[in-house]
Amino acid sequence: MALLKKKNKEIVLERYYAAPLETVWKAWTEAERLAKWWGPEKTKVTDCEVDLRVGGRIYIVTEATGEMGKYAGTRWPMEGTFTHIDETGRLTYDARSWQEGDEEGTTIHHTNDVTLTNEGDKTHVRLHVTITRIGTKAKLAAFGMKWGYKAQLDALEKLLEG
Amino acid sequence: MEAVFSALGEPGRLRIVELLRLGPHAVGDIVERLGMRQPQVSKHLKVLAQAGLVKVQPRARHRIYHLDADAFEQMREWVDSFEELWAARLDSLGRYLEELDEEERDQ
């Protein structure tokens, strides 16, 4: 009996940008442009390498700035390999992201699938992130567990204690 | 979280977690359901307990094991923060593209 469906965790994010598709494509694929936006607020990009060919490497390190308080200096690398490149609007890569110094406890393996579509004077971006594994060893079937699992377990715990 | 990930990295322990997902089980039940040897199951349960993934509840002469919500919650939070990161990144791309546009207009 299959006790657990081994489902991956999926994240789908969509945005419209008032920029031509070519500009958005360059922002995703040219290292010097990528470095300008990749880090969210209060971070900076310290390393950015893009070898734009199938099998080529993408490597970007985001570092927390002093504004992030206790996280200042913390580095979060992402390293990946391109699996599909189509400059008319599709970019995919297999990657792993982690926090430097705690690879064992923070590594997330994921695939990123970016689709760009021209819609009038806007570009639609769909980012589909699939988390395939977490940890360096764990094939985390545990992700098949329903989110919101805590409430269920808390109720169980009460039942057991009561 | 390192302990959690590494505890789940062992296939036998993962099978125990999968079984406990269905509900609490006594050690003997786990041995029977999974066809593992008792000392092996006890060893796995010890590692899972140390990682905070399972808790034990004595009942009569049995020791009943169940999953501990907190460890799973921690894991969920880590993944949620990963999701938030990508959302923040796409917002940041929006700001970058707007700035580009302004620079071009200024030229």
Distance from N terminus to C terminus of chain B (CA atoms, Å) equals 51 Å
Query: Under CATH, the topology of chain A is which?
Result: Alpha-D-Glucose-1,6-Bisphosphate, Chain A, domain 4
Can you summarize the main beta sheet of chain A?
Answer: 7 strands, antiparallel
**Main interface: chain pair and counts:** A-B, 51 and 49 residues
> CATH superfamily of the largest domain in chain B, please?
Winged helix-like DNA-binding domain superfamily/Winged helix DNA-binding domain
- Could you tell me the radius of gyration of chain B in angstroms? 23 Å
Secondary-structure element sequence of chain B? Answer: HHEHHEEH
Can you tell me the CATH class of chain A? Answer: Alpha Beta
Number of helices of chain A: 4
| Average of pLDDT of chain B | 88
List the helices and strands and how they pair.
The complex is a heterodimer of chains A (162) and B (107).
Chain A: E1 9-17, H1 21-29, H2 31-37, E2 43-50, E3 57-64, E4 75-86, E5 90-97, H3 103-106, E6 108-119, E7 122-134, H4 149-161
Antiparallel strand pairs in A: 1-7, 2-3, 3-4, 4-5, 5-6, 6-7
Helix pairs in contact in A: 1-2
Chain B: H1 2-8, H2 11-20, E1 25-26, H3 27-34, H4 38-50, E2 54-59, E3 62-67, H5 69-106
Antiparallel strand pairs in B: 1-3, 2-3
Helix pairs in contact in B: 1-4
